[in-house]
## 1
Amino acid sequence: MERLQKVIAHAGVASRRKAEELITEGKVKVNGKIVRELGVKVGPNDKVEVNEVPLEKEVPVYFLFYKPRGVISAVSDDKERKVVTDFFPEIQERIYPVGRLDYDTSGLLLITNDGEFANVLMHPKHEVDKVYVAKVKGIPLRESLKKLEYGVKLEDGKTAPAKVKVLNTDKKKNSSIIEITIHEGRNRQVRRMFDAIGHPVIKLKRERYGFLTLQGLSPGDSRELTPHEVKQMRALATAEPKDKSKKRR
Ligand code: URA
């Protein structure tokens, strides 16, 4: 279910603000009835009309994007920095990123105009593994990494168990490359987790999202998801967790 003004905007009829005006002016009908409230939510089976004309739904599009560092996970930026949609100049649909990667984080980001798909993937109760490779300062002790595996206390609560694998250590440069798999999506979570064990992140990349990888792509590249991948991602996000006991640690 999505807010009526968002659905109208996504159909390309008007901006979100203009859509709100159309609603409050009584020009929008849902299932044959005029709706003037802005909070109303509609689903795919609701019939929405603007000025008596039924909405043409935008065809849903789904992209896997390799976000470079130095790009904002947004559709616009008031400081005029590069945003992810700058990489899709040909796309007419109102696309936006599913969740976000920090400005300085590179890696796999999904881009779509399908709000329901985005909501399913971003919902905290839906747990899709995300694999990150972090270059961190220092060489963490096994027991520090165990803390990440069990869950560390952050200001917004303890993190769920993570999987951690040391890929490389460099004593001369005093840094390590660590793969970490999490399924939560809190703000700057990986950076804050490594801060919590005293090994700040120097560089961060998201390598995998569910079964999707960056294979064959360079930073700034994108490809369309296949219909099967879209279906599989939906199924993965809504599947029951395999081992609920693990989450209670
Ligand atoms: N965790 C972070 O700290 N940053 C990201 O961009 C993604 C996950």
## 2
Amino acid sequence: MSKDRYAIDSNKNIDDTLKLISIHKGVNKGFFFMLLALYAIACIGRIRTTYSANDILNILGFSVPATAIIGVFSSLANICVICLTVFFRKTGYVMSMLLLIVQFPGLFINIFVRHQHANLPGIFTSILTIIAISVIFLNNRRIEKYQQRMSEEAVTDSLTGLPNRFAGKEFMDELVAANERFAFVSVDLNNFKSINDTMGHAVGDKVLVEIANRWKNLADSNQTGTSDFVSRLSADEYSLIIRGFNTDLDLLRSIRAYKEELENRMTIDECDFFMTACFGYSIYPDDADNAGSLFSAADAAMHEIKRTNGSNCILQYTQNLNKTEFKMDIERKLRNALENDTVFFNLQPQFDINHKLRGFEALARLKDTDGSFISPADFIPVAEEAGLIDVLDLCIFKKAAAFFGEVIKNSSDALTLSINVSVRHLLKNSFIEEIKEVLDSNSIPPQNLEIEITESIMIDSAGKALECVRDAKNMGIKVAIDDFGTGYSSLSYLNKFPANLLKIDKSFIDGMNTSESSKQYVATIISIGHILNLEVISEGVESDDQLATLKDIGCDFIQGYIWGRPLPPEEARKLVCA
Ligand code: C2E
Ligand code: CA
Ligand code: CA
């Protein structure tokens, strides 16, 4: 197959798809020239028999008058031009017309100059043949147009005008047959349903058309550096077929260009829309060797993004598999570390706004076999999924308490040890008993301990969790709501929850100096906290600007790299006044 068939120029998506799946594949050139040769023979035969019209010819032993043969040659010539018109459409029709018209001067000379009236029927035959082939040609055109429309409808999405799922699959089949490397990207819009539900289907349709236009223009512009084919699969699902990338980075750059194009503000019927989507992709031949499997692989990657709340908006199918292997590896290492008691902790200092030490948050640490650290962002979720988080929490608590008990014995300050408590740990029947035991054995007054519970845990497991927290609070233990602002707790819930401290999540602190709304948000949380009689600590404070703003808006405590990173216990000890 010629490479040209796949040289789909992005701006001709539909036309090229039609070419690829065209029903009429063309009749070969040999037949064309055979008809011309036959026509030439018929014309020569007719001329020769016309010139010897009075002769008697001997054909296969029969005596035949030459005049009787003229008609045979004429009919043969007519059949040739009709066949040309039928099989070769426009080219055949033009050629036939030429062949018929060039006969006229000769016929006129023969009749009117040479007075050979035997040519008279020839004129009528030629005129009638011209009429016949014109009728055939016009009829063919009509049928062709109809076929074209049918084919277009079969491969076109009627709303957006993009190629549809069928066209995309046909194109992939062709690329697979040509063994050409390409990526198939499955794109699913986020929250599109809510646009339909709140703004109506007419607006939803306009959004879909706008996205199609943006992406088609981007593909046409060749700005991505790759050859891209955009199609719409179903309601809010699109797909991209990307070719001509040398490295995975080139491919990612292309996909990102579509992502950015989508995320630019969209104004429809005077309303602004900010669309996002999940992009899952698979690569031929790395991930699958046929169109169907590539579809499924890209879809699986796309659904993995949805499942993980879209934290990674572009994902390759294989990464998904690797991720599972990666998690299994972490789980193995975590189990080993718990068994061999090699899990350890760091302490991150917390300060009041005047830089006076308030206490420390204990953070779990795990080392890899090569001595490097495995990030808590990797091993904490694995510990949660594997049901090891309560064991890990208790292990860190015991170790941190052993150290902290020693420290406060020699310190005049009333320091606080904050520990992270997972829901699994909190809901364990033995939770309060274990805490009590550890506190007692290390001579730590309950007032010096703080348990940090994330806002989302607090909402998800309301009833029983609330009871456990109340029990802890009744013992004198302090309660902090961690990552505050990332969940959706209501004010009334917050009012009921027996907390002492709100920990404002780092993401709001990050945004504070670039966005006025983040600053207002943080200021509001602090005010609400104070109204509800809670103290407020800001997490992840890194810059002087952030610190100055937090002082300004009345934040009580600070935890962040600006005044202290998580430290090994011996380093932390140095911060405590004797
Ligand atoms: P977290 O409880 O919100 O802990 C604060 C995280 O923010 C820590 O990350 C800390 O190192 C980091 N951090 C603090 N200040 C800054 C700053 O100024 N800049 C930046 N970039 N980061 C800062 P880490 O230690 O990686 O812990 C991540 C998360 O893992 C913790 O978030 C907590 O949710 C979880 N975690 C850690 N240890 C434990 C544990 O023993 N038990 C449980 N259940 N979860 C834990
Ligand atoms: Ca925490
Ligand atoms: Ca936090």
